Amino acid sequence: MAIRMLRLAMMLFTAAAIQSVATAAEPTVVRSVDRIETNRTNDFYTGNRAPLVASPLIKLPIGAIKPQSWLRKQLELEAAGFVGHLPEISKYLVRERNAWLDPKGAGTNGWEEVPYWLKGFGDLGYVLGDERLNKESKFWIEAVLRSQRPDGFFGPRGSGAKATVDSTRGKYDLWPNMVMLFALQSYYEYSHDQRVLDLMTRYFKWEMQIPDAEFLPPYWQHHRAADNLYSVYWLYNRTGNAFLLDLAKKVERCKANWSAGVPDRHNVNIAQAFRGPGIYYLQSKDPAHLAGPEHNYRQIWDEYGQVPGGGFGADEQLRKGYVGPQQAFETCGIVELMLSEEILLTLTGNLTWADRCEDVAYNSFPATVTADFKALRYLTAPNLVVSDRVSKEPSLCNSGPMLLMNPHSHRCCQHNISHGWPYFSEHLWFATPDNGLAAALYAPSEVTAKVAGGATVTIREETHYPFADELQFVLTASKPAKFPLYLRMPDWCEAPELSINGEKIALTDPRPRTFLCVTREWSSGDRVTLRMPMKIRTRTWAKNRNSVSIDRGPLTYSLKIGEKYVQVDGKEFIDSRNDLRHDASLEKWPAWEIHPTTPWNYGLLLNAADPAKSFEVVEREWPKSDQPFAAADVPIELKAVGRRIPSWKLDRTGLVGPVPQSPVSTDQPSEPIELIPMGAARLRISAFPTIAPAEEKPAAPDKAGAK
């Protein structure tokens, strides 16, 4: 009997030991995933509620993602710069008689400027945990909550709630409220204040009562009503009120039709509204709506976006023939394009939108402001060699000093720029339907979230990306947890390298624009290293005279041009446009012209067989300023060889002339030149002509005035 008991005990011990070994040795599974499956529902975070199409990526609550390193520095500069102090600068944020602060909605400055600013200013405070910013935004939010009428309408009303600008027809102008709804949604995600849901529910019931003939007339609200639609679905996902789906149908039938092509030529309308069909797809499930944003994108970018930087040339309005890299993109358009791409990434899981968003965020957006974030300009172009107060009309669509770095002016952009970096930061990480986490946009950050089994994990993303090719993900967990970790493979990444806790993982099918899905039981201290080698690539823009741009990873590189900053007050212009707060300090918040101090009219000498061999990568120490988008502090440069092209000059308005047709013949000597990241270059040549080989016949000279 004793022997039998001993044998049984040994068998039980052996079985337990085998199970323990099997658990400890449970393999790490790594696979490439084109799209994250949506056949499950995340247990912890709010996604799309049925019958809406389930989203493969679920936005985390504000505060779950904490930017680090250079990205946090951008946010801190924004808070210390004109955005964080705009109530001291902008006349539209003066509290006295402000219609957004009046319980009856009476007063002045009741259009888009306040909600534009608050939309990003509030999120800036939430993301940074900045008490000063949070106190200021709460003051405005409380006023908005108090402004709701018994019938449900909220905000400025004036005479019958009519538009405050001449460009909107009809009884109601709902465009400013669409922007304010974004600010309220962020406040709710941060605070869980039930009053936001109550206000939005009453407001959308009020919208249901408006006859279709009076709902969303031209101009701004008609084209941008997908923002209204987005907020309707946001509320539906949190309340389940069925009437909201009927309201969504009403919005879709009354707004401008962006499902059959691009119906408007205004750059911000395009950047903002092209996403609309993709939003309505959540309810319609019509493949044509899902394809709509890409169709719209192609229609614009194939003609006006054949330039580096991820944007397109509109100078406010698209104009036939004005398609070169000297044409500019409005700052409002840049941040709205980033938001469109963030929203489409979230709704579809299509990683094309992540690549496009990083392109704009890293190459176009930083140069819209001075490196200290204390002044901005209205327009920024891929090729821009003088940034002054002199009007460039008709070379640019807009008249006036649209290239002047000026914190007191550029009205819409001055306020709307606020959401660029905060919203980008909020879309770095996502929850997934299978209770995992996805890194969809890359930047130094830290995310804390719940995963499968209810464990709380923190993942610290240590990296100098996009300036460096290595990312370290260091995990801390409340308890061991098995869940999938999704890591995005950008379109430019051909041969990623992955290791876990120092052990290299064999990747059988890594493909661009997919996720690497790493599933294992994770424990505190686990470290994932992802290396994405950055090769130098050249792009040829055949539709823009065969000009070329130079890429390395997600960054595009521009000619390093010496920059001389000349302080001006711009007061005469500001006063004439009535944009100035007369008690604002022009000494504390000056405007700046930027003039070149070195030649800019270079063509590139390229190795015809292997263009990448034409460049030498020079890596420098990481800047102590933690501001890699300052021209003097860039951590990486490319050395190249160029020749000057004397015939390439400024045009009669002072704008850089159209890029010459490549290849260009020139008798100038070869010179070493330096290229820096495009986002750090406030003056830049980003689309270069190439120099003809000695034996090649030179191209015909440009015709005067060609675009």
Please give the structural blueprint.
Layout: H1 2-24, E1 29-33, E2 58-59, E3 65-67, H2 69-80, H3 86-89, H4 113-128, H5 131-146, H6 175-191, H7 194-209, H8 220-223, H9 226-239, H10 243-254, H11 267-273, H12 276-284, H13 287-304, E4 329-330, H14 331-348, H15 352-363, E5 379-380, E6 383-384, H16 411-416, H17 420-426, E7 429-431, E8 437-439, E9 445-450, E10 456-463, E11 470-477, E12 481-489, E13 497-500, E14 503-505, E15 514-522, E16 527-531, E17 536-541, E18 547-552, E19 555-559, E20 563-568, H18 571-577, E21 591-596, E22 602-604, E23 616-619, E24 636-644, E25 670-677, E26 684-685
Parallel strand pairs: 8-12
Antiparallel strand pairs: 1-15, 2-7, 3-9, 4-5, 6-26, 7-8, 9-10, 10-11, 11-16, 12-15, 13-14, 13-16, 17-18, 18-19, 19-25, 20-21, 22-24, 23-24, 24-25
In a nutshell, what does this entry contain?
31% of the residues lie in helices and 18% in strands. It has 707 residues and is an alpha+beta fold. The N and C termini lie far apart (99 Å).
Would you kindly provide a written description of the structure presented here, covering whatever features stand out?
The chain is α+β, with helices and mostly antiparallel strands and 707 residues long. Among the domains are: 26-38 and 432-531, Immunoglobulin-like (Sandwich); 90-256, no CATH class. The protein is 31% helix and 18% strand. The chain contains 18 helices and 26 strands. The longest helix is centred in the first third of the chain and has 23 residues, at 2-24. The N and C termini lie far apart (99 Å).
